[in-house]
Amino acid sequence: MRYAELVRAYERLEATTKRLEMRAILSELFLSVPHSELASVVYLSQGQLRPEYEGVELGVATSLGTRAVAEATGAEVAAVAERLKAVGDLGDVAAERLAERGNTGEDHPLDVSEAYLRLLEVARTSGEGSQDAKIGILRDLLGRASPVEGKYVVRFVMGTLRLGVREATMLDAFAAAWGGGTKESRLAIEAAFNVSSDLGVVATTLADGGVAALSGIALTVGRPVRPMLAERAKDLSEVLQRMDGTAALEYKYDGLRVQAHLAPDGTVRLFSRRLEEISAQFPELLADLPKALGAGPAIVEGECVSVDADTDEIRPFQEISRRRGRKYDLERMQEEIRVAMFLFDVLLDKDGTTIELPFPERRRRLEALVQGSPRIRLATQRIVHDVEAAQAFFDESIADGCEGVMAKSLAPESAYRAGARGFWWIKYKREYTQGLADSIDGVVVGAFHGRGRRAGMYGALLLASYNPEKGVYESFCKVGTGFDDAALQALPAKLAPFAVAERPAGIDTGMEPDQWFTPGVVLEVRGAELSLSPTHRAGVGLVRPGAGFALRFPRFTGRWREDKGPEDATTAAELLRLYRTQVRREATEGDDAPGDEPAVPIGRKD
Ligand code: AMP
């Protein structure tokens, strides 16, 4: 196909904003393209050279584009730059210059496949001398282009094509071209796109075999699947109602969603929720996933969070977010920000794809697949049948450093719905708070052995508040953060006078520390907020039967309250006041990053 023909369609597209018209222009275009060139035309029309997840970029800056236009049209770079300032679009400047030179595009006409391959070369040329090589290719392309062809070549390489063709419009056009424009064909096309994330593959399959051939587009290792998304509910009772009374609840880890693809040769590729490849950012996962998943192929999904190396507590989202996008200093970062991936779904294993299976079966396949390790674990899950059980699980999740629960339908229809947001998954988060107004003085009643750098010493302490009404010390947190080396070294001597072999009377906690202490040492901690927990017993029953206060993300402030005896520690009544006065901020509606929505959400049940 001549590049000039493609450009004619571009001009028509640019002249309209109406989706129906765009659909007609595109479907006409697609039907006129030879099959071998169809994928290139699809990518080019989206301003891309390859499916988005491959991240192929042209790497052409304005200065380079300006030089290419100047050299191709025999103008001074300064003159082109000057004109660009006046006109505002380098494509228009190129068209002007080519018209002045009398280029017709007829001497040695460009065709689509050649233009596509040369542009791909521009993208793939890197390293020393690459700028000149890129300019050389562009000069050659522009030298042969008509003014209007030149305009679009330049706009393409500058990333300013602006045809306004969104993914959804492309899918509409495919349905019009090869599916008779029916709703069913549109759905089938969208489903094929959701598992392949590649419009070029979808179009070529349609052109070769029609809508019926789409079922042959299988999940492929290395090609990310558009993620299944969750709806929201106002409370746990609505969650259960929507799931017909029974649901699998899972911890909702507050981290980065990662889709891991394991090839049979042990190679792992990782994709973000937005389908960008992020393999290089997590070398430790590349090393550990093959051990955890055995011989591939496999595609699994999970949430990556940061965990404390010494106490194994889940750390706040801010920590893992420091690993996002990082390319340098990875070794140090791996040490500093330890990562654990909590797997919650499997899309493919060595027996084939699993996305059509109901969720309970997928979870069984996942459990059978995963050989857990400190770095690769299964998401904590519990099947619940009533609100009380759901609430208890929710409280445990918050106490363990998570942000809420993900409820998952167990219905026969609970297949993995790629790219869709629906009530098969419902997220329920607690309101965020802006931290606690005050610090808390806690009494040390137990200690846990350290791991990693803290092996051989105490890694974390169990703290209690005092309940004068009952004369009992009730636990409210396990704290391992905030101790510097000196504080850690000092712990054994400081605590030794209070160490006892058995749990002392008058201590109420759901935790089992490695070492118990009679109440004696008091220290100051701060935390993000107070939540309710069945494990911790501070002020148990004051807000809800069976639940005590738990301090989330506790941190030792460095102050030993030697001025305080255990009975002077913060009391249950004070904790209740703190709990009630916490600054609450509603969970933001759009807690997803802007633009994170799938282009074409399907499967809504609402
Ligand atoms: P959504 O806001 O619809 O994208 O869904 C919530 C997000 O929670 C998912 O995209 C995951 O990144 C994350 N998440 C954390 N824990 C889980 C879990 N157990 N199951 C599914 N998603 C989870």
Would you give an account of this structure?
The chain is built from 20 helices and 23 strands. The protein folds into 3 domains: 48-158, DNA ligase i, domain 1 (Orthogonal Bundle), CATH 1.10.3260.10; 229-432, DNA ligase/mRNA capping enzyme (D-amino Acid Aminotransferase, Chain A, domain 1), CATH 3.30.470.30; 440-581, Nucleic acid-binding proteins (OB fold (Dihydrolipoamide Acetyltransferase, E2P)). The longest helix has 14 residues, at 19-32. The chain is of the alpha+beta class and 606 residues long. 37% of the residues lie in helices and 20% in strands.
List the helices and strands and how they pair.
Layout: H1 3-14, H2 19-32, H3 35-45, H4 62-73, H5 77-87, H6 90-100, H7 112-124, H8 130-143, H9 147-158, H10 167-178, H11 183-196, H12 199-209, E1 229-232, H13 236-242, E2 247-251, E3 256-262, E4 268-272, H14 283-293, E5 298-306, H15 317-321, H16 330-336, E6 339-349, E7 352-353, H17 359-369, E8 376-378, E9 381-384, H18 387-399, E10 404-408, E11 421-429, E12 432-433, E13 440-449, E14 458-467, E15 472-479, H19 485-495, E16 499-500, E17 507-508, E18 515-517, E19 522-526, E20 529-533, E21 548-552, E22 555-560, H20 572-581, E23 584-585
Helix pairs in contact: 1-2, 2-10, 3-12, 4-5, 4-6, 4-8, 6-9, 7-8, 10-11, 10-12
Bound molecules: adenosine monophosphate.
Adenosine monophosphate binds next to β1, β2 and β11.
Label this structure with key terms.
606 residues; alpha+beta; DNA ligase i, domain 1; OB fold (Dihydrolipoamide Acetyltransferase, E2P); eight-stranded mixed beta sheet; six-stranded mixed beta sheet; 37% helix; 20% strand; elongated; binds adenosine monophosphate
